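Late entry, S-adenosyl-L-homocysteine complex.
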Amino acid sequence: MTDSFEAKGKRKKLVAELRQKGITDEEVLRAIDTVPRHLFMDPAFLSHAYVDKAFPITSGQTISQPYTVAVQTCLLKVKKWDKILEVGTGSGYQTAVLAEMGAKVYTIERFRELYLKAQGILTSLGYSADFFYGDGYEGKPQYGPFDGILITAAAPEIPDTLIYQLKTGGRLVIPLGSSGTQVMTVMERTGPESFERSEHGNFVFVPMLKGTVNGK
Ligand code: SAH
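Prediction complete; structure with ligand written out below:
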């Protein structure tokens, strides 16, 4: 797996663009400056790796837009050693950004093909994260509770099973809505049965669906 001067230059420009769009968290920007997004792209879109857009990957899914990755990562308020559960591994790009920030990441993907591919790329880049093939609606209670839970697919409602896998003080970041655009929503757990909800703008995601797909 290779990085290049050209890719590094393009990443710097991307980071400058994200700053202009309002991203100020230096750790998040550093991680985006470091992770070689081109290695997570479908070969057909390789030359667009540092364009601030989502692109198709295998299994009819998408690699999230860098701006979206930045916003979600900022909202999680990740600190080194935090235990983060990610639902929707996809390309593994967001997983790598979290791992680069020093988080202990547990990530779940419902497409077996994507789960295998993402795991391979992160391993070859030297990132350690725990990969699971399964239905993210169930979470990973045996590894929780988590400092943060990040959903990278559009959910029609907040899954109860997941918010109860947060630590007190932990944050769930989830794009809420079924079709069209979704509202980026944060649920902070403030006590055993109490949560504080906030909303952070509109985004577009592929849907969060139940069950697994064991294709190819
Ligand atoms: N963070 C990823 C985003 C991928 S798109 C990236 O930047 O590449 C969202 C992913 O969520 C898709 O791969 C989709 O298959 C997955 N997904 C949807 N519903 C899921 C569920 N219930 N459990 C696990 N993964 C799910």
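The chain has six helices and nine strands. Will revisit in the morning.
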